[in-house]
TrEMBL record:
Gene3D superfamilies: 1.20.1050.10, Glutaredoxin
Protein name listed in UniProt: Glutathione S-transferase family protein
A Pfam family assignment: GST_N_2
PANTHER family recorded: GLUTATHIONE S-TRANSFERASE-RELATED, HYPOTHETICAL GLUTATHIONE S-TRANSFERASE LIKE PROTEIN
Domain of life where this protein originates: Bacteria
Residues in GST C-terminal domain copies: 84-194
Coiled coil (residue ranges): none
Taxonomic lineage from the root: Bacteria, Pseudomonadati, Pseudomonadota, Alphaproteobacteria, Caulobacterales
InterPro entries documented for this protein: Glutathione-S-Trfase_C-like (IPR010987), Glutathione-S-Trfase_C_sf (IPR036282), Glutathione_S-Trfase (IPR040079), Glutathione_S-Trfase_N (IPR004045), GST_C (IPR004046), Thioredoxin-like_sf (IPR036249)
Residue ranges constituting the GST N-terminal domain according to the UniProt record: 1-82
């Protein structure tokens, strides 16, 4: 059985959990509060020297980390990974973009506001600017289309919905982005996210 170390407040952890549930894979979830120092213990650092969640221990004992790498590992061969090389690469393009240009702003502001309890005036304005730039990029990409890549949901949609759907917890008003609002609903339905 798989062992998953994850924090239920984390979109990075939840997107892996959602895929495992959808793929009907057996796993043991170990709730790992990243704010408590649990990911800095000697035992955890032996599994993941970066000290981050999610971290999965495979059935054979090998550890694997990084949310989008985990999505690719568990999603391999599923309907959520395009068969054609171009669409597959486009999906990966979105996965890389999510961790570089979306998550560092949307997720960080959401963490600071909703979990760390900081007030709006304590948030660095550049984080808000970059978060809105990421949302504007997605809004444009979804113009006239249902999914980020191709004609069906992919791991790109799953990856990006994790923090986009909770962006309002970081004061990002999604009503400014009607394509995103509709896409979030479609993606939640496609992946069984409630």
């Amino acid at each position: 059985m798989l062992t998953v170390y994850g924090d239920n407040r984390s979109g990075n952890c939840l997107k892996v959990k959602w895929l495992l549930d959808l793929m009907r894979l057996d796993y043991q979830w170990i709730e790992t509060d990243v704010t408590s120092g649990a990911t800095r213990s000697e035992a955890f650092l032996a599994l993941n020297p970066a000290g981050q969640t999610p971290t999965v221990v495979l059935e054979d004992g090998r550890p694997l980390a990084q949310s989008n790498a985990l999505l690719l590992y568990f999603g391999e061969g599923s309907r959520f990974v395009p068969a054609g090389p171009y669409d597959r690469a486009r999906m990966m393009e979105w996965l890389f973009w999510e961790q570089y240009s979306h998550e560092p702003y949307i997720a960080v502001v959401r963490f600071q506001r909703a979990i760390a309890g900081r007030s709006a005036d304590q948030i660095e304005p550049r984080l808000m600017e970059r978060g809105h730039a990421a949302l504007a990029r997605m809004e444009q990409a979804l113009e006239g289309r249902d999914w980020l890549v191709g004609e069906a949901p992919t791991l790109a949609d799953l990856s990006l919905v994790a923090y986009t759907r909770v962006a309002p917890e970081g004061d990002f008003d999604l009503t400014r982005y009607p394509n995103i609002v509709a896409w979030v609903a479609r993606t939640e339905a496609a992946f069984g996210i409630s």
